Amino acid sequence: MRISISIETAIKAILKNKRRSFLTIIGIIVGIAAVITIVTVGRGYEKYSVKQLLDSEDVKNNRTTISFSPEDDDNFAKSSFSYFNQHDLDLVRSVPGVSEAQYEVEKPDKIYRQESVALSKGPQSLKIHLVSGTGENVVAGKKLSSADIGNKVVTVSDKVVKDLDPKASNNDIVDKTAEIGGESFLIVGVFESDLIDTTRFEMNKSTYDHYFPGSDNKNIQITVPSDQNLTKVADQVVKKLGKQGSVKSLGNYEFSNTAAMTNDISAVLQMLTLIVSFIAGISLFISGVGVMNMVYTSISERIKEIGIRRALGATEKTIQMQFLLEGLMLTLFGGIIGYLFGELFAFIISKFMKFDFEFDPFVAFLAIGISVLVGLVFSYIPSKNASKKDVVELIK
């Protein structure tokens, strides 16, 4: 029998018992939808997290920032020294593994600085976002606006409120002061940070430049091919600048290990996706048992049909293929419906988690692959048994 005729016969057999077929594939639909939703959301959020940290979609290169921290900020600011100069750039470019080195070019909405902040547990270097216009929306107080240009005011993350004052709430911290880089700034609002954002303050850029002059060319960005170990190359750069850098005796060089953070985050998200997908996969196993049961029931109801076809010359392989295709078509239908539901749920979740939903061919192949695998595995034994039955007993 040609394969096209076998497929047509299998579809007719499934449609003949629509209610039973539908009830059987409900488990497949739920299982596939759960797996596809989890995998799509997991991969989408992983891309979003890495993009947020690296601020780049270049998969062939990794980048990190080399910075210099003076031992005495005030004296260094008053001196004529620069954080980096051409001599330092040439030194960095000579380090094996560095494909490109340049002064960090900052996007207007992506300008950040690290400054020492007086916290209740002691001073700590924290990340400050410099804004040129309007700041983040706030949950207490007011957000920064163009009217604050030049004013000695900041907004703070809700994650640093307790570090500034253990007894303060978001509303309590408003109108208090924070000591940043030895200067006191009035806190006018509190903004909400997401899980991966490490920004702790927002300040107008003009204000920052006034109180912390000389911040241009403060960092060097190095580019390292993806096949190189970014951490080791950056460490070599820091060691070389520490020995030969233009201001080596006035402070310390360091690098932002963002790449290592992205690797850790990716590994954690991938592991969580795998674990949750495994749990969802249990429903697929139970659904597979249901498919096996349906194929057994179908065989028992069509014993005479099998016997007649065997008597007319149908081979064991043809009979096995017939019932194997019925199980396969059943799980494939369920897989396609489950995939569509999974993508729909992932799209809705992406709107709440604020990451871009993208069609992922891997997820589509995963849905089809799982459906085919479940169909083949759980239909093989019943179809094999059907093909091995004795012709005489079948037509009694």
UniProtKB/TrEMBL annotation:
Keywords: Cell membrane, Membrane, Transmembrane, Transmembrane helix. It is a multi-pass membrane protein. The keyword Transferase does not apply. GO terms for molecular function: transmembrane transporter activity. GO terms for cellular component: plasma membrane. The keyword Transmembrane applies. The chain crosses the membrane at residues 21-42, 271-296, 327-350, 362-381. Residues 278-390 form the ABC3 transporter permease C-terminal domain. It is found in: Cell membrane. Its main location: membrane. Residues 21-238 form the MacB-like periplasmic core domain. Belongs to the ABC-4 integral membrane protein family. PANTHER family: ABC TRANSPORTER PERMEASE YTRF, MEMBRANE COMPONENT OF TRANSPORTER-RELATED. This is Permease. It comes from Xylocopilactobacillus apicola.
